[in-house]
Amino acid sequence: MPGYMLQKGIDLVTRGVDEDEEHNYEDALRLYEHGVDCFTYAVKYETRSNEEKENIHNMCLTYMDRAKKLKEYLQWAKGNKPVKVHNKGSNRKNSDSISKDSERKKLQEQLTGAIVMEKPNVRWEDIAGLKGAKEALKEAVILPIKFPQLFTGQRKPWRRILLFGPPGTGKSYIAKAVATEAGTSTFFSVSSSDLVSKWLGESE
User: Fold this and answer.
1) What is the pTM of this model?
2) pLDDT in tens, 43-91
3) What is the rounded distance in angstroms from the CA atom of residue 13 to the CA atom of residue 35?
4) In sequence order, what DSSP letters do the residues of 112-170 get, joined into one string?
């Protein structure tokens, strides 16, 4: 028997399909998005088997793809295609500011050197335990990459997660798993000494 949120998601997308067939595209889009929200909650809190999670993920992909097409159509129909505006004056001002700030330039060079060029090869299943940390990182990092349509408007992913604990508890290992699962994202390996202000000293 499906959980409450899973059943609610199924009901919502079913209504969305009905509205879609009646060409009520705005209502269909809203119902699809709410349905996917329910599916995402169900994956995190209501499902246990990997097979069930995979089935829900597939439903998410199906209805998110349809929602994306509806959104593009509605934008086209209203003549409101998003246009990127480049503020050349602001960019030039920022560029001048950066060139004058030697400390900021030095920090940028340090951070550039902190980019991990070699992609790790660690998967979630390679890490024993740490279920809560893995779920939190999936929600904060992986979901926004795979399902960007979920995080629009006021709905935003977490921006920071602190992993803490004594050495040897898997913090670095799980960070490598995030870098692997995140695909083409850029992964930084930064120590505290890379970020220390000159007013506090140049090293730890």
Assistant:
1) 0.42
2) 887 777 788 888 888 888 888 888 888 888 888 877 755 545 455 555 5
3) 5
4) HHTB--SPP---GGGS-S-HHHHHHHIIIIIHHHH-GGGS-TT-----------STTSS
Each residue of 123-143: pLDDT tens digit?
766 777 777 777 777 777 776
Domain 4-78 has CATH 1.20.58.80: yes
| Amino acid letter, 164 | F
Other C-beta atoms closer than 10 Å to the C-beta of 19 total 17
Residue with the two structure tokens 């993920």: 57
For the chain, domain boundaries = 4-78, 102-200
Q: What residues contact residue 158 under an 8 Å CB cut-off, 6+ apart?
A: 136, 139, 140
Query: In the CATH hierarchy, which top-level class contains the domain 102-200?
Result: alpha beta
Dig out the tokens for 159 from the structure: 């921006």
C-alpha angle with apex 87: 86 to 91, nearest 5 degrees? 110
User: Which residues neighbour 15 within 8 Å (Cβ) at sequence distance 6 or greater?
Assistant: 31
Buried/exposed 88-123: b ≥16 CB within 10 Å, e otherwise: eeeeeeeeeeeeeeeeeeebeeeeeeeeeeeebebe
